[in-house]
Amino acid sequence: MKNTTLEAREPSVEKTHKRSARVRNNAWRHSEETSMHPSQSTSGLLNRPVTKAFSALLALFFLTPLVSVAQSESSSAELDASIKVEENVREHLGNFEITSVSESLIPGLYELVSGGTILYVNEGGNLLIEGDMIDLENRTNLTEQRKGKLHMGMISQLSESDVLVYEPEEPTGRSITVFTDISCGYCQRLHQELDTYLDAGVAVRYLMFPRAGLQTPAANALESVWCNEDPQAAMTTAKSGGRVPPKSCDNPMEQHVALAQQVGLRGTPLIYLDTGDRIPGYRDAATVVDMVLSNEKWAP
Q: What integer pLDDT is reported at residue 62 of this predicted model?
């Protein structure tokens, strides 16, 4: 009986080892399941907010290079297509001035910039369109918008010392640039409203354009204004019908006229807002000031 009782109370060493092994095996399996399959456990790491954010960062880290590569390949393809279009155009137009070629908003149609002019051409380079692209939904002349910014880029190349500027007492950093002539009626009317611009903090920058040509009395009058000791006051006198003493000096008039030809000037005044918009002809000062101050300044 003693022997039987002892055997019942004291399991054999072999049984004890087997039970310990089962415990260890269960613990190992639990640890393995937790570490290998966290999504199946309520205490899994991916259920923790910090780890979710980390996983998102890892995804971003691996996906970003793929996006960059795709964008790079797309840009390269667009560049190759533009180069091919330019080559096709040159086959038909020879040494025609081409400043740039880029895709337009219309598939298969490319924007061709030549100096200050915007044209459109097909991929084969054998069909050329001269005209405006209109956004009918927004009633916007997209070509005119593009021209304004293109021309402002050309105007910005001028040195400030080569422009006749009327500065406001309290500058806002905003301005308009105007191709002007002394005898032009609407140029005179714009000048009469000078105070409206200056009081609003908008500077007025004049570029000289004698409509009759460079070798004319109109050009001589503009030169006398530029060479005067006080050119701003002299311009006001000249546009009011007063006499400005004749004077000659180095001046940027030829440069202004060449620029006017590049932007396709057809009459004065031609107004460029610092927003990148342009107004061919006169517009009342209050309207122009509102257009300037209610829109962001264009940046090259």
A: 56
